[in-house]
Amino acid sequence: MNVTVLKLGGELIEALDARTAMAARIATLASQTLLIVVHGGGKAIDAELARRGIAPKKVDGLRITDADTLDAVVAVIAGSTNTALVASLVAADVKAVGLTGVDAGCGRATRVAPITSTAGEVVSLGLVGDPTAADPALFHTLVSAGYVPVVACLGVDSTGQVLNVNADVIACRIAAAVGARELIIAGTTAGVFDAHGATIPLLDTDGMSAMIASGAANAGMVAKLNACRTALDAGVEAVRVVDGKDLMTGTVLQLVAVGYESNRTRR
User: Of the spans 52-56, 96-100, 224-228, 256-260, which averages the highest pLDDT?
Assistant: First the structure.
């Protein structure tokens, strides 16, 4: 199936005006391709934690998710943020259907292992999951019927425990599972930058590895690049990292497996 997966950073859909504008862009994209949308929560999660009197806990920039924090994350991502985005899409004449990775087990995950912080301390991230697989059946059923699944970044483990998962990673897993032609990762920056702050227009897998090995990519970008490479290796033809305000010109960065043997090549 000719499917595109679009991952939205939570910051792109928090305010009503930004969400309305994004919905219009998504409507245009959905008129051109079968589409699946994945989103995070952005600053709305921290705002909800503050409202509940819960101090955010992080280590090396990674959120520690205890039971109370997970309740807030679920309320925001699966509740207010997902519903508001679906409503804006419906207003833009998109047949959007709100989901999370928990629905029909379409976002299977496992608990991440404790990490060693830069300070040398072994820290558990709590109820945080690594999306290990995505079941494409529900997505294929919906997109083939003309619907646009809008997936909040939650996962579920084998015991039924809901887990907080990285939106980039689950988007890559979904793109791989459905055999997507393209994955678009939209945020507030115009792609991946070189050492001089200029956008890199085309980056192959060797270039990604070089950026990671040299330290040119920061921690957040390392995770993003690794997720993108996983999608490419699974057969996704191209990954684009773009500024969410300019989806249609696709502008910024295209990650392609140049000279890299993907699973699609081997099949």
Answer: 96-100
